[in-house]
Description:
Blueprint: E1 36-38, E2 43-44, E3 50-55, E4 61-66, E5 68-73, E6 76-81, E7 101-102
Amino acid sequence: RSFSVKIEIDNPKMMIRPGMIAEVKIMSENKKEVLSVPVEAIQHDFNNQSFVYVVDNSGNKAFRRNVSLGQLINDKIEITSGLSENEIIVTGGQQKLVDGSIISISK
Length: 107
């Protein structure tokens, strides 16, 4: 995600110019535990709905689950709804899956 913001910073050597793009990380003292998954596990459909494939209890089928995304944290993305802790998700080869696909788990 990207946002337009206005900030004031020291620029004594005029190395920062108008129109330049920057990545900003805002640090906070508030720490909370979040549920996050690898970015590569997230898929998007034609309506831009984010989803993952969740492995069923028997471990041999994967089912699509819509999720809501939060912030990007290094190489992981926060899941704000749609997934519970301890659920197993598909993180490789999910581009070839459809709802109910038979899978094999490798560790």
